[in-house]
């Protein structure tokens, strides 16, 4: 009897048989699928996925006597022999375990079974098994080696999705989850054959909520001891913390946390998640944030409590160990981007789906929930509901401006609020008085005049063009000392240095005037006495107000002025942003809006969502048709990530030689993940295509043989210091700047400072 092998030799010169590989993958896949209540299905998937390797043709591949053959289709053919819906799903995930999900696989399977051709689309690969005779023999071999009887054994039926708000979407998520189990099991078992310690290294530490709660309390005590905030404010923070801990006793499901800015929600959310996991046995915590700057800030604080924390995003500096953990989401606490987490729920390619099953039985915290993408909102909310309904998850949406999603058409939205009386908390946290200058436009010259006469003041504009003009006007009215500009035109290291200087001057009560774009609104701990905000959606205004009198107590009020710039051309980054801002303006025609009134916030969202458009048509059609690649393409939180430009910033000690080092490595090795990670502190995202083409050099790319290849790239090198200003960052020309103003700031277009 011929012996069939699954892989080439390992370092010890050993060969792994197909039988051994199938049984190992079956065991792992059953384990991974157990939280989905599909362990039997998972075992069957593992036992069949590489059945096509029981083939002389595939064995020739291992001996380098044959070019690549398709061994996935035969396993899918055998899977469909069970019959029924579960068998079709089984066939779909087996067919895709080395490629990507496709719903319509029947033509390929029928062709393989009939044996009319040995080549299958789309790659025209040769099938390892083809025709009725070969499949008869294959079935006998699988039965003999694995014990699986395809003629008489039944296939575990999949959990019913009848109560799902969107059945096609629910079906797609279920398939992706099962696909994730199989892909991870296959990848892990294969790596394990070549490195016996692989799974031990790639599994991470288990979540130990009881011990971590003690560490959290110790950290919180240290923060309180060093706090300079008002006593009344600290008392409110204590109250919020206690309410989060108490709410964690409730059963898993969908929650909201509605609390004012500056209340210390970072630690409160972690407390809820840990206590909830301790009570209900969840195995992992995800903290999902919209901007890389916030991720780094929160991860730094969390890491002192949870040493095994894992940051997962495209620009993190990863070792081989952390990369392996990130590929599997194998850590007790994962801090990641909104882009990466949400897009992962709609992915269709094997490497992108591998870790998805790890989200089951987890606590998922989405901070700054007002940043959820408006064009993808229905699909996003329904998917979050699915995670709670069928995958043992608890999802928390946290924000100071809780969106009233229940007013969206055809949306059933009934989360539980963690804070028993959030309105009382908002009333107690009132720290600013608002002047609404929205009945007429205000010239930026007037704003500059007023800011020049103040010592602690910030202005936030919707567009970089407006921010630069206001900054130039201020330079004419006051000395450069104490005047700052902040936008995503500054690289992260530059922004960090700028914010450090700003905080230092504010602490020393020295004159400090800051002009900024929206990049300062969410999660930046900064405190001005007065703040100007160009008219924006209400949630943006409230976030901006959180940068004013942030640490003040009752009776101490900062001043916020909301105005409409008297400027030509567009005033907003995108259509949705403009629509929401105009709805706020209409509300203000009748009366002032109270930033601390949850009733006013709800009334605003009622206006926003009652006539809001549906999700993008491409996404709706893809879901309806169970089109996995189409959904993957359509579900893009940031439709275009723009151009990444590595800039010659040398403004702090860490960056002195960084540009030169990155340039040397990039030109020698090409555009590699290591280069991108190293360059992140001096990388700027821009949408100024003309400027990039005129002043920047694309980084080279190389194939696996080290040969330079001509391939389009979104990453460039700026080797011209004149285009990077020490005060205002990347700037090409007025001409190119004006051409590409749209979608540059915030999360409702191309989110500056975000990443996946």
Give a structural overview.
The protein folds into four domains: 157 residues, no CATH class; 208 residues, P-loop containing nucleotide triphosphate hydrolases (Rossmann fold, 3-Layer(aba) Sandwich); 166 residues, P-loop containing nucleotide triphosphate hydrolases (Rossmann fold, 3-Layer(aba) Sandwich); 96 residues, no CATH class. The radius of gyration is 28 Å and the shape is globular. The C terminus is likely disordered. α10 runs antiparallel to α12 and α25 packs antiparallel against α26. Helices cover 44% and strands 13% of the residues. With 756 residues, it is α/β, with parallel strands linked by helices. α14 links the parallel β6 and β7. The strands form six sheets. Strands 6-7-5-8-9-4-10 form a seven-stranded parallel sheet, sandwiched between helices. Strands 11-16-15-12-14-13 form a six-stranded parallel sheet, with helices on both faces.
| Ends distance | 50 Å
**Which fold name corresponds to the CATH topology of the largest domain?**
Rossmann fold
Q: What portion of the residues fall into strands of 2 or more residues? A: 5-15%
Helix share bin:
40-55%
Major beta sheet summary: 7 strands, parallel
Q: Nearest-angstrom radius of gyration?
A: 28 Å
Stretches where pLDDT is under 50 for at least 5 consecutive residues are 735-756
Q: What global shape is seen? A: globular
The CATH fourth-level homologous superfamily of the largest domain: P-loop containing nucleotide triphosphate hydrolases
- Please report the total strand number as a whole number: 24
Number of helices: 30
- At CATH's second level, what is the architecture of the largest domain? 3-Layer(aba) Sandwich
């Amino acid at each position: 009897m011929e012996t069939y092998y699954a892989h080439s030799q390992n370092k010890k010169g050993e060969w792994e048989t197909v039988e051994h590989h199938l049984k190992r993958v079956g065991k792992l896949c059953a384990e991974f699928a157990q939280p989905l209540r599909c362990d039997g299905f998972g075992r069957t998937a593992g036992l069949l996925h590489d059945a096509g390797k029981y083939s002389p043709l595939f064995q020739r591949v291992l001996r380098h006597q044959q070019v690549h053959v398709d061994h996935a289709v035969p396993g899918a053919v055998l899977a469909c022999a069970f019959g029924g819906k579960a068998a079709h799903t089984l066939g779909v995930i087996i067919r895709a375990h080395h490629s990507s999900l496709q719903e319509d696989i029947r033509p390929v399977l029928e062709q393989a079974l009939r044996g009319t051709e040995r080549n299958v689309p789309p790659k025209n690969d040769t099938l390892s098994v083809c025709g009725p005779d070969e499949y008869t023999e294959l079935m006998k071999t699988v039965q003999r080696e694995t014990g699986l009887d395809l003629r008489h054994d039944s296939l575990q039926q999949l959990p019913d999705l009848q109560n799902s708000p969107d059945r096609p979407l629910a079906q797609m998520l279920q398939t992706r989850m099962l696909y994730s189990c199989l892909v991870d099991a296959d990848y892990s078992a294969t790596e394990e054959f070549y490195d016996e310690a692989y799974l031990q290294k790639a599994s991470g530490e288990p979540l130990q909520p009881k011990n971590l709660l003690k560490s959290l309390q110790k950290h919180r005590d240290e923060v309180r001891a060093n706090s300079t905030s008002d006593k009344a404010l600290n008392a409110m923070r204590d109250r919020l913390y206690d309410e989060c801990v108490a709410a964690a006793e409730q059963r898993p499901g969908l929650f909201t946390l509605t609390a004012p800015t500056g209340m210390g929600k970072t630690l409160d959310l972690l407390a809820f998640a840990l206590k909830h996991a301790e009570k209900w046995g969840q195995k992992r915590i995800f903290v999902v944030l919209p901007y890389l700057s916030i991720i780094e800030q929160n991860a730094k604080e969390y890491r002192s409590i949870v040493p095994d924390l894992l940051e997962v995003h495209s620009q993190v500096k990863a070792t081989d160990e952390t990369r392996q953990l990130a590929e599997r989401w194998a850590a007790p606490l994962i801090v990641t981007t909104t882009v990466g987490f949400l897009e992962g729920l709609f992915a269709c390619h094997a490497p992108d789906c591998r870790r998805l099953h790890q989200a089951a039985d987890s606590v998922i915290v989405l901070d700054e929930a007002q940043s959820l993408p408006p064009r993808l909102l229905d699909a996003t909310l329904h998917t979050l509901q699915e995670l709670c309904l069928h995958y043992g998850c608890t999802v928390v949406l946290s924000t100071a401006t809780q969106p009233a999603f229940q007013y969206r058409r055809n949306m059933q939205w009934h989360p539980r609020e963690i804070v028993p009386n959030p309105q009382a908390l908002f009333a107690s946290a009132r720290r600013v008085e608002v002047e609404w200058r929205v009945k007429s436009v205000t010239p930026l010259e007037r704003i500059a005049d007023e800011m020049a006469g103040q010592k602690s003041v910030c202005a936030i504009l919707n567009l970089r063009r407006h921010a630069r003009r206001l900054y130039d006007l201020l330079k004419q009215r006051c000395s450069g000392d104490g005047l700052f500009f902040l936008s995503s035109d500054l690289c992260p290291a530059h922004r960090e240095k700028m914010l450090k200087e700003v905080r230092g001057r504010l602490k020393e009560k020295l004159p400090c005037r800051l002009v900024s774009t929206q990049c300062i609104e969410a999660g930046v701990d900064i405190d001005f006495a007065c703040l100007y905000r160009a008219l924006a959606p209400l949630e943006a205004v409230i976030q901006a107000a959180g940068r004013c009198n942030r640490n003040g107590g009752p009776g101490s009020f900062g001043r916020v002025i909301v105005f409409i710039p008297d400027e030509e051309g567009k005033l907003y980054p995108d259509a949705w942003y403009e629509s929401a801002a105009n709805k706020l303006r209409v509300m203000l025609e009748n009366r002032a809006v109270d930033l601390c009134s949850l009733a006013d916030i709800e009334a605003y969202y009622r206006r926003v969502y009652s006539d809001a458009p549906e999700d993008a048509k491409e996404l709706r059609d893809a879901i309806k048709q169970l089109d996995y690649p189409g959904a993957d393409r359509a579900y893009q939180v940031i439709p275009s990530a723009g151009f990444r430009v590595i800039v010659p910033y040398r403004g702090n000690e860490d960056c002195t030689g960084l540009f030169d080092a990155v340039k040397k490595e990039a030109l020698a090795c090409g555009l590699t993940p290591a280069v991108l990670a190293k360059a992140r502190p001096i990388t700027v995202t821009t949408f100024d295509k003309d400027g990039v083409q005129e002043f920047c050099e694309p980084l080279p790319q190389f194939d696996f043989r080290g040969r330079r290849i001509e391939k389009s790239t979104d990453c460039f090198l700026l080797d011209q210091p004149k285009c990077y200003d020490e005060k205002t960052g990347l700037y090409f020309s007025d001409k190119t700047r004006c051409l590409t103003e749209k979608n540059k700031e915030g999360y409702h277009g191309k989110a500056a400072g975000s990443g996946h």
